[in-house]
Specification:
Layout lengths: L1 E6 L7 H14 L4 E6 L5 H13 L3 H22 L3 H28 L4 H8 L1 H16 L4 E4 L1 H4 L2 E2 L10 H17 L3 E5 L2 E4 L4 E3 L5 H11 L4 E6 L20 E3 H10 L10 H6 L3 E5 L8 E4 L12 E14 L9 H11 L6 E4 L5 E7 H15 L6 E14 L9 H11 L6 E4 L5 E7 H14 L7
Parallel strand pairs: 1-2, 1-8, 2-5, 3-5, 4-6, 8-10, 9-11
Antiparallel strand pairs: 6-7, 10-11, 12-14, 12-15, 13-14, 15-17, 16-17
Helix pairs in contact: 1-3, 1-6, 2-3, 3-4, 3-6, 4-6, 8-9, 12-13, 14-15
The structure holds aspartic acid and magnesium ion.
The site of aspartic acid has 11 residues, from loops.
Length: 467
Amino acid sequence: MRLVIKYGGTSISSAKDIQGIANYVNSLSKHNDIAIVCSAISGTTDDLIEISQSIKKENKEKAEQLASKIINRHKQLAKQTIKKSTTRKKLLEKLDTDFQELFALIEGMVLLGEVTPRSMDYLISFGERLSIKLISFAISDIGKKSIPLTGKDVGIVTDSNFGESKPLMDTTRLRVSKTIDLQFSKKTIPVIGGFTGADQHGHVTTFGRGGSDYTATIIGSCIKADEIWLMSDVDGLMTADPKIVKNAKLLKEVSYIEAIEMALFGAKQIHPRTFEPLLTKKIPMKIRNSFNVKNEGTLVTDSPSISTKNTVKCVSNIRHNGLIDIRGGSMVGTPGTAAKIFATLAKAGINVMMISQNPSESSITIVVKNTDLDKAVNVLEMELLGKIIKKLEVTTDVAIIALIGLGMRGTVGVASKVFGAIEKNKINVAMITQGSSELNLAFVVKDSDSNVAVQALHNAFELDKIN
Ligand code: ASP
Ligand code: MG
């Protein structure tokens, strides 16, 4: 089999874990061609982002202090992980070259006194540049050939939209397949840095936070992998957040479209574009736990087997949001009202999570993160109050409860079951949305009611008996 295995940051954060992965991958490679993708070691990307903030505040000392923290951590891991002294020495030398470049970069950014999207991407790409070397050398250390490759090295070419780039798939496919086929022919395991690529001028770009998942599926699609495994520290996708629902169950199988919804709403954060490259190639993906490899995890496929086609598969909640009810008589029958509202919010960089408009058109209700609420209300008041908007009503601390499942489509009685269960618990619903795909039914309750609501729905749909 051709396999792409992606490791998240927490899976590679100790010498023992890295050695475990090296052994595991080595034994799998006896019968399979394996390409590894990995994230930065947990916390590294956060530290790099903090460096950029220190640079913005002209605090060079703090920036260098954080860089030293990153350096020490990787050096220590290198020393603890690698047993052969020659291999260890070579790794430390390679890491030193990266460290020098990191310090030079910080120096340069401090001198310029600015953080541009381009320099930011270059800076935050260091996490994966370092982690791939640790993993790859750990594999070599046990006698299996391996090579560390950054996204740029492997041939991922993107547009120049720094911070949120997209791959140019045709060029990428040609280059990536050539690079990886060559390594496979040499029986060498490529360890590829997730999250990054390079634009056509060779400048390093990133896909946005959590982008290593996306790298894994890009690579998988380029090399026509038979399976892609996303390894992290959770067993897979669950019917609900196990911290809220004690009897939450692991989902054995879900479809791509369900997984996309769950990635947005679920406890396991997956980069939203991860599934895009899989849709045409229909490559199966497994979401698995690197600390519990006996568990098969969740299989994500184009068409899950009939037995798991429950109406609802998962109840999730996102807390700490704010609801804004936008009202005004002149909104009624006026084309362009919604466009103006959303353009105003977009200009201020505010992401809208939920939208509903009643057919009388006299109000539009939106949900944004609590942290964006102040700014959202402010720009709407500044730009539109007294014009198309007459009144804004704000509710803070609300939760979005979302039910996800393909089987809801065309099934009669789902809504009554949902709101019946909610009513029994005397919970007030502030807003409801359901797209016509009927894949996701979502509503808004107070944060303080959300745990009870999730548990009630989990019970109502008997999700503890799902598999
Ligand atoms: N290291 C990057 C991040 O923390 C990418 C990833 O982990 O997927 O966002
Ligand atoms: Mg990460």
